Amino acid sequence: MNKKTTAREKNEFLWGWIFILPTMIGLVVLNIYPMLQTIYQSFFKTGDFGKGNIFVGLANYRKVFGDAEVWQSLWNTIKYAIVEVPLSVAIALILAVFLNQKIKGRSAFRTIFFLPMVVAPAAVAMVWKWLYNSQFGLLNHVLPMKRNWVSDPKIAIYSIAVIGIWSVIGYNMVLFLAGLQEVPRDYYEAAAIDGAGGVTQFFHITIPLISPTMFFVVVTRVIAAMQVFDLIFMVIDANNPALKKTQSLVYLFYDYSFNQGNKGYGATVVVVLLVVIALLTVLQMIGQKKWVHYS
Question: Which of 103, 173, 223, 242 could share a disulfide with 153, CB 3.0–4.6 Å?
């Protein structure tokens, strides 16, 4: 290896680090350091007036495992994810398949479905609170049944999940459209010649070939759904009778840390959530070997 080549490699190495350094600094400052600080904080009890934290070891974790409110919040979060993730993925995939065809107004439809992603969460919550209003809401005027959509503890979490589905369909759809663009048309033409219909092509060509995209969407949606907070915070009021049946682990973390001033215990709650998300991600990584096909 001559000196010119060595100098070029050094130059490329230097510029490579220069380009990725801002991202790495942002990752460390905004993600890694706060995560480590949160884990560290979970071993302490917040001192008086937020100062002089007292080291309590694993006491917060022992308290968490015996806290019924934490388990209820975890179950609320899981129920939200069970409803939001499959439906948002399935609906987005179907829409992406239709909007990948040559239809009139395709660009307009793509824009319309993506709009919820660029709308402020506060505006989304305000509109849906009006739709769900038990006295003046549009849903109770259109549907034959009259329900307390966000104040009935039995259905409130599912009402929140509907808002989540509506909000993320456009984002999922765009990702699926990107995956569909990579599927060669030759496969569909060959399948049509062999007599395969649209449904058969969807299950035997489309899904297998975009399974890597589906895997990415599912993993990211599960992580996001397990961290739901803003919709619950803005739709469910503090005096809502359904609060205990809708609050997520992140909401509980917010309540302990900022409303009750117990940042140590709040940090413990969010560390438990981190472990749950990590376990779910590992299970998905293991399971993807059976259904994800990389060409």
Answer: 242
